[in-house]
Amino acid sequence: IGIRSSRQVICDQMLNLSDQVVGRRFPDAIAETWGFHDNHGYDYEFESDQSLFYVWVLGYWARPLGYEIPYGVLLPKGVEGLLVACRACGLTHDAHMSFRMQNDMQRIGEAAGLAAAIAVESGRDPRYISISELRQLLIASGAIRPPSEKPRFMEKLEQATSSWKALPPPDRPSELVAEIEGPRASSALLLLSSAKPDSPTYNELLKTSEASDKPVARFRAAAVLAMRHDSRAIPALIETVRSRLSAPPSPECNRVRADVPAWIPAAALLGRLKAREAVPEMVAVLDDGDLSLDALLTIVRALGRIGDPRAAAALERVANRKELPTSRKLQVSMNNSNPVVLDARWQIDLAIAESLAAMGIKREDLIAPYLNDTRAPVRRRAMAVLTFARQTAEEAFLAK
Fold first, then answer.
1. Of 46, 163, 205, 318, most Cβ neighbours within 10 A?
2. What is the spatial distance between Cα 318 and Cα 149, in angstroms, rounded to a whole number?
């Protein structure tokens, strides 16, 4: 029916956001594309950690993305004789945001049609056809370029970034890490996120998170460490939350999709690290009556990921509060339209119920009002939280 996103088929290859960010190339490429991480949400506390880091920490919602599409995303895992030539192909939720346009579907539709013809003519399952033959047909039609030529997306990336000054090379780690304080911080952080844990660059990141005299540098270095599941990021992230640090992404991000204070993604990253030592500070924030909706939800969900029962009383207090930030503004793609504003109290109640369930506390009364809501996404979310709460309670009972 043309809705933006629904189900994704699990395929032999699943394209993800990391593939898109690094401009990955594939030996079985059957198409290429160009776009950006066009996520229409504002509530990145409900998105993956990768998406949250990319948008809330780096500010890179509008950064150009170009990459190749592998043939394996058309092949449903464990199913023969079928090609998925639509938006349900092998993509993660994050990857779907930049690969769902009409021209994308035309590209994989052409490749799937040719693959089907080769399969019929050769008497083989689509999974076992000659990829080189398929690629030759696509090169002949102009859909992709020969291996000897530069892909179109690489040309576009070079054009888009031609004005960017080159960062210091990885063999000068102190200079590279110093960039996270300046106007090219996001580019530097993106490069630093691939540093190996035993490298001088990674050690420089760690030193910055621990000893820099600039709070924004400590936070940004710690954010990279947290994405690598390095618990040594915790002190700097706690301090970022305690000081309510407000540090927007670097100036190169001229179209920031969701510009939030640094302490909000810092709280989310503490949840990722399951940092129990952060609970007192997170509870203190939760008791602050002057929070935005996304800040409140980020803290609630982070406490749920940590799962420390010490936070339960604070969550209960929030659940009983009548005055909460509940206005959720939806994206407007056309500049001449007024945004739709919805009541998001359901997000708060269900997030609290889910986090309490993770701590072994059942609050089905918070879930029940939404099980028959007129909005299908709300009903589905309520049922998912109810299922999680009951499963968690059953597992706790069996463990005893």
1. 205
2. 59
Q: ∠88-89-90 over CA atoms, to 5°? A: 125
Q: How confident is the model at residue 260 (pLDDT cuts 50, 70, 90)?
A: confident
pTM for the model stands at 0.92
Average per-residue pLDDT for the chain: 91
343 forms bridges with which residues in the sheet? Answer: 327
H helix or E strand, kind and range, residue 290: none
| H helical segments located in the chain | 17-21, 49-52, 93-96, 102-122, 131-141, 152-160, 173-178, 185-192, 200-211, 215-227, 234-242, 263-272, 279-286, 293-306, 312-320, 345-358, 364-367, 376-399
Identify the CA nearest to 239 among candidates 253, 220, 258.
220
User: Phi, psi at residue 15, to the nearest 5°?
Assistant: -70, 135
Q: What share of the chain is helix, strand, coil (3-state, %, to 5)?
A: 55, 5, 40
Count, residues in the chain: 400
Residue 118: HSE in the Cβ half-sphere, 13 Å Cα cutoff: 21
* Distance separating alpha carbons of residues 299 and 315, to the nearest angstrom: 10
Q: Which amino acid is at 96?
A: H
**CA torsion angle 303 307 308 314 (round to 10):** 40
Closest residue by Cα to residue 266 from 254, 282, 255, 252: 282
**Rounded percentage of the chain residues whose pLDDT exceeds 70:** 96
CA terminus-to-terminus distance, the chain: 48
Q: What is the DSSP letter of 5?
A: -
Closest CA to 302 of 328, 326, 278: 278
Q: Are 44 and 51 in contact (CB under 8 A)?
A: yes
Structure confidence by residue, pLDDT tens digits, 380-399: 999 999 999 999 988 887 88
**Per-residue CA distances from 395 to 4, 364, 399 (Å):** 36, 17, 6
Tokens of 159: 């054009």
What's the CA gap between 317 and 314, in Å, rounded? 5
Q: In a 3-state reduction of DSSP, which class is residue 3?
A: coil
